């Protein structure tokens, strides 16, 4: 989610109009809504001082507005917060573990996202059970969706299916 989309999302969450928010950060009344619309649609990108002012008025961290840098701890957690906003996920503790839960019964998540996450979980389970190697798992992740055989976008049939078809054709030829 781009910075403009985050601004719009949080502004709407707070029940603010573009005009009100624009005026609250110092834009003239006459152009406040136009300026905010430009930022929200992405035709303009707010500078650091404006991001800080918006965050202050919206009562959020500036990190909640920026496009997160997942290479930092704070950027990563704000990425997960954005995923929560967009897809309705949640964090749960189970004993000493923390789990990110993508609930397929919640219609806030696009079904294709849930299918992709399910495919990922299936591959992770195969790795855990020793059915595939770490190299196979990494290849699946880094070429996704090209080698995923669980979805309609798969470009390559699974080895098991391919072997089965070859054997079936061999018997038909005999």
How does this model look, in words?
The protein contains nine helices and two strands, in the order ααααααββααα. The protein has 174 residues and is mainly alpha-helical. It has a two-stranded antiparallel ribbon with strand order 1-2. A hairpin with a 2-residue loop joins strand 1 and strand 2. The chain is elongated.
Q: How would the global form be characterised? A: elongated
Low-confidence stretches: none
The quaternary state of the protein chains shown equals: single chain
Lateral strand order in the biggest sheet: 1-2
Largest sheet: 2 strands, antiparallel
> How do the helices and strands follow one another from N- to C-terminus?
HHHHHHEEHHH
Mean pLDDT: 84
Question: Over the alpha carbons, how many angstroms does the gyration radius reach?
Answer: 23 Å
Give the number of helices. Answer: 9
The secondary-structure class comes to mainly alpha
């Amino acid at each position: 989610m781009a910075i403009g989309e985050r601004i719009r999302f949080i502004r709407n969450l707070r029940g603010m109009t573009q005009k009100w928010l624009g005026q609250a950060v110092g834009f003239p009344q006459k152009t406040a809504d136009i300026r905010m619309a430009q930022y929200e649609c992405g035709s303009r990108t707010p500078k650091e001082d404006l991001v800080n002012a918006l965050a202050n008025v919206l009562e959020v961290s500036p990190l909640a507005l920026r496009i997160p840098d997942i290479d930092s701890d704070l950027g990563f957690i704000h990425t997960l917060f954005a995923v929560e906003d967009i897809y309705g996920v949640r964090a749960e503790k189970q004993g000493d573990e923390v789990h990110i839960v993508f609930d397929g019964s919640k219609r806030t998540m696009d079904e294709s996202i849930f299918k992709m996450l399910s495919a990922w979980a299936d591959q992770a389970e195969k790795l855990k059970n020793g059915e595939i190697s770490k190299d196979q798992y990494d290849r699946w992740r880094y070429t996704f969706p090209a080698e995923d055989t669980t979805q309609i976008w798969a470009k390559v049939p699974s080895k098991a299916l391919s072997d089965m078809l070859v054997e079936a054709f061999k018997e038909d030829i005999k």
